Amino acid sequence: MGNTPVASHAVSDVAFDEAPLPAGTPEELAGPPEPVQFAPVTRQERINSLDVLRGVALMGILIMNITDFAMSYANYMIPLGSWLPVFTGPYAKVNTAVWMLRWIIAEGKMRALFSMLFGAGAILLTDRAERRGGGDKVADIFLRRNMWLVLIGFLHAFVIWNGDILFWYGITGLLFLYPMRKLKPKTLIKTAGWLLLVWVLIAGVGRSTGVFFTEKKGNEAIAAVHAGKTLTEKERSAIVSKVDMDKQWAPLRVDTEKAIADHHGYLKAQATDAKNSLQSEQGIYFGFLDVLIFMTLGMALYKNGFLTNQMPTSVYVKTAVIGYLISVPLTTLSVVMAWRGGFEIVKSTMWLYGPYDICRVSGALANASVILLILRAGALKWLTKRIAAVGQMALSNYLLTSITCQFLFCWGPTHWYQYLVYYKLYYVVAGVWLLNLTWSPIWLKYFQFGPVEWVWRSLTYWKRQPMRLKTTAAV
Questions:
Q1: What's the CA gap between 320 and 211, in Å, rounded?
Q2: How far is residue 447 from each of residues 18, 45, 276, 451, 470, measured CA to CA in Å?
Q3: Tens digits of per-residue pLDDT, 151-160?
Q4: Counting beta carbons within 10 angstroms of the beta carbon of residue 314, is it exposed (0 to 12), middle (13 to 18) or buried (19 or more)?
Q5: What gap in Å lies between CA 188 and CA 301, rounded to an integer?
Q6: DSSP secondary-structure letter at 468?
Q7: Residues 6+ apart with CB under 8 A from 37
């Protein structure tokens, strides 16, 4: 999830042993206080809109992450250091168009939506259990569930793929979401707004400023060398910093060759990425804001009925129109200016990162609104039903996607790492989507949960959960 990101947050788990609730009642993730018996929530109690949104977000995240799988995180934002040329050569036009569309449609927006659903899941986890008398057991289950998610994320990062997001989600959930669960929607939205402002200053303004001064000081030190001056220690450090930054922005050919060799086979690939995984997991002290903003917003949007499709149709129409009027033109301008400037590091960073989070918020809300309008109209049921199955098994599909892509690009005999033309990466994306959409509904014909969801629940309650549908009678 490099940036990639994302962990799933299935939003149903167990129900108390009492009279059945009406279909559509919000699910819970928390277990009941002993000695009450409990069982998995029935299918009728799931909230379809959340499953569909989660499925779309999960699959959409691969639009960005495929570059990380296939070319390394250094090429995630702009593939300037790939083995095969992207913006020059015979495929330059189609590659450039695909890269721009990726930014306009999905970059950051799918991850934002996924984080919103995780925040909504925190409310679903606690609210229903508390209303049914869960008491202190609610906090216990919430704590253990997120602790297990941290471990799953840690293992995912080191054993499968260094772009993990589960670890970040689990840590953020442990630190912030439970204490925030009782806040009113308006308070949560205001909190998300202030957090967004802080994050824009750190990640947008701060990153652009840092790149500008690193480039400026490095160029000044290099000019001093050409002038025959003796460099100070500070000037030598400035040159080193500039060189390191430039290599990260556009990796050298020799570094790309080494990366290809280092990602050939499971053991070599995972050993190579272990350092990046450790840095990513340690970065929680800084990067948690990136997900906390949207988790907080998701908590508010669940409480006010937006994510559960309970608001008037006009709200979703207005949100979609306003969201796209902000995100599409602004993102388009950003990518076009970066491209026209030859992807020069300072100008590109300012254009791409400056409006990045504003476009994420507006674009994610617009995308969600369109999906909810489609559901409200009852359109594309043949597709939304399959997407809902993907969302219901989001954690299993998240890990399956990582394993599939790592096998194709690094571990397996195909070894496509750095060897596919950029636009052809999206053939792989389509193939993984087809896999998600095919196996998820088939699995759910026979089982109550996805396989990893079942393990997660069993560990959370420290009790083997019923799995096959025939053993999970409706309560």
A1: 34
A2: 23, 16, 36, 9, 8
A3: 999 999 999 9
A4: exposed
A5: 9
A6: B
A7: 17
DSSP 406-449: HIIIIISSS--TTTS-GGGHHHHHHHHHHHHHHHHHHHTTTBSS
Residue range 316-359, pLDDT digits in tens: 999 999 999 999 999 999 999 999 999 999 999 999 999 999 99
Tokens 């399959």 belong to residue: 386
Question: Is 231 inside any structural domain?
Answer: no
Q: CA-to-CA distance for 92 and 339, rounded, in angstroms?
A: 12
| Residue at 299 is within a domain | yes
With contact defined as beta carbons under 8 Å apart, do 460 and 467 qualify?
no
- Mean pLDDT (the chain) is 87
| Model pLDDT for residues 362-384, shown as the tens digit of each residue | 999 999 999 999 999 999 999 99
Is residue 332 one of the residues assigned to a domain?
Answer: yes
131 near 170, Cβ under 8 Å? Answer: no
pTM, full prediction: 0.88
Residue 370 lies in a domain: yes
344: domain range?
14-182+259-471
Residues 61, 64, 65, CA angle at the centre, nearest 5°?
80
Number of H helices, E strands in the chain: 19, 2
* Number of domains the chain contains: 1
User: What's the CA gap between 76 and 70, in Å, rounded?
Assistant: 10
